[in-house]
Specification:
Length: 426
Amino acid sequence: MSDPPQDHLPPPAFLADPAPAAVLAALPGARAVGGCVRDALAGRAVHDVDVAAPFPPEVIAQRLREAGLKVFETGLAHGTVTAVLRHQPVEVTALRRDVVTDGRHAEVAWTTDWREDAARRDFTFNAMSMDARGHLWDFFGGRADLAAGRVRFVGDAATRLAEDFLRALRFFRFWARYGQGAPDAEALAAITAAVPGLVARVAPERIWMELKRLLEAPDPVGALELMAGVGLLAAVLPEGAEPGRLARMIPHGLPGDPLLRLAVLLPLSADVSAIARRLRLSGEERERLTVLRRIEAAPRPGDAMRGYHFRAWRAQVRAASRHVMPVEPLWVAQAELGGEGWAELRNRLSPDEADPEFPVQGRDLLARGVPPGPAMGQILGRLRQAWIDSDCTLDQQALLAQAKNPGTADGTAAPEGIAPRDAPGS
Ligand code: ATP
Ligand code: MG
């Protein structure tokens, strides 16, 4: 509690934002902690502000409310509440020390000792804290490590990993952003030994969450190669991940979207549904990953591409998922096929040319006597495919004629009763 600060700096801009400023003012003795202090010292944009305070969580919540902030008790058992002012959330956590750890979860007790709280954090540069006036507490040399690109565990690496194996993945997430030079040999050795613990003890959702944060780093390739070297990459992606594929694509400007990066990282033979099951991907993530990697019909450089080819491809992607942009699978295609001309192809695919609209709707079929229900959905699906196969050139009349004739689009017979009642389009 009484440790003097190591330094006094001009307060970084994020401390003056309304929400953090109000939180710090409402809780005398509180400080900004973790990522916001690290990123401000590194001269990077600060995204989320976390604050710690030397009071039990109930006291924190009460004082914040008295100061007029909205308070959500998001994680009271872990000592955390979320304060919101002008739509900006600030997580406020009681100072903690670990009582019992089991490789993932910790039983914690509140403390008033800042050094104890810092000692349970993962890396030296994540263990710094700063008050509203710019006083910096840096118990473990985090600032120097940050400047030198050293990702260093607070304390003994093996002990810290045994407390929480997820930290093995976090090491590489932070390495991707801040690491320079040779990584800490002691840390790598300890991580190698911790890989089985991570697989056995850490929930797949948490693994996926950290993996996403790693993949969205501007250039995660070096970190992924290190992970491969210690056996961690194969442990979390046993379907086979090849950092070289990402390494080839990042210089071409591959976006930072983690799912697109995962789609590129995995060889086309990898089993996406196995990955989705194991890492518990959301339905939307699973759909995106599948469609991003469905590249057989994707345009290729050197094809004599006409406007309708692009339209057909757009329509196909749109029909498969509304969460994938038609240009995105081309990144996967380039990683897979190599060669020149992809940037130009992407530019030609991106322009805002309006997508062709599928010209048949349910009501057109209704007007022809098709009852609403699954059969109608099947007919619409079949017509859409026929339309795509025609490079989106078949018009409504031609499509409705197909609906009438059994066995046209895909060999299945159309249900009976499709007879024109009105002229098409009426
Ligand atoms: P980012 O900007 O990427 O969110 P961050 O430092 O805020 O980085 P978080 O995962 O949001 O990272 O965690 C916030 C802080 O909590 C960390 O800076 C660290 O001090 C502490 N922390 C988080 N997870 C762990 C962990 N598993 N073990 C120890 N400390 C942790
Ligand atoms: Mg954070």
